[in-house]
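Reviewers of the previous submission asked for a worked example of the structure-prediction workflow described in the proposal, so we include one complete record here. The input consisted solely of the amino acid sequence. No template or homolog information was supplied to the procedure at any stage.
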Amino acid sequence: MDHTKRRQFLQRSGVTFGAALVGGRLAAAASERPFPARSYQDAPGQRALLYELLGDLPDRQRPVTARKRGQAERDGYVLENWVLDLNGLEAVPAFLARPSGLTGPAPAILFNHSHGGGYDIGKREFVEGRSYLQPVPYAKALTDEGYVALAIDHWCFGERNHTSEADTFKAMLWEGRVLWGMMVYDSLRALDWLVTRSDVDSSRLGTLGMSMGSTMAWWLAALDERVEVTVDICCLTDFHTLLAKKGLSLHGVYYYVPSLLKHFTTADINALIAPRAHLALAGLRDELTPVEGLDIVDEELKRVYASAGHPERWQLLRYDVAHQETAEGRQEILAFLRRSL
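From that input alone, the workflow returned the following structure tokens.
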């Protein structure tokens, strides 16, 4: 198909970014959007629409049950081992860490594990760490700060690594489900369970994660207003810039939600978090988060938080690294949590 016929086909098909895609002219797509920029005041309706895009999900109100498998004393904290029934389809193994000697309700963090091709790792990242995270695992770092923290195995990871990510994505698609939607659903229900605990102060909740866990953190906070503090590490990716740079293969298939770009930019989703506290950390040499896209998201969120009257609650920190957490970044994260929770 020559360029003229291709352009006519794209125009007839109503492809939003057709003009930018023809002839390899992809750069323009990074700055185009098919709808006006949003305000945090649009949040209730947009939050409902975002949830709707996540496919056929289990009943949001179905009862959540849990079975404790045991616990162990660690270095300054207690690690509880649980199996949660969050979705009615597949059991969800989980680790919960709480400070040793905790006597009353404490602020709580939902930790979201990364991808990194570590399908056998999952929630173990919480207690064992990963090569691109700082040496002290987050179970230790967070409990040392006085937080109760929860980490679950997501679909295809850890103890749920019985079927490949590609096969799970395809099977769910046939069933009208979206893999990312099912993962987000599990996170929402994990938060539902976390707040039922007597040692958790449900008015002081945060979420954080690296890479896939970073994306989960900002999706979760966008959809659930109970999350007061969000920390995302190395995955605040502007969708349209990623498309313009032909970088879609850099992210796993789990990342893609049907029809998402008809309704949302990355900044639009993150605007749903405002005016709650949000810290993002990025690497200037990280191909997963092109710098041009970081600029776009940063500019829009500065506007959103300023219009909400709390510009100080949004912060994007950039480091001269690739896809990794820095020592300076870890200190900033813990300080941000202290200030905000």
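The two ends are 57 Å apart (CA to CA). We consider this example representative of the routine output the project will generate in years two and three.
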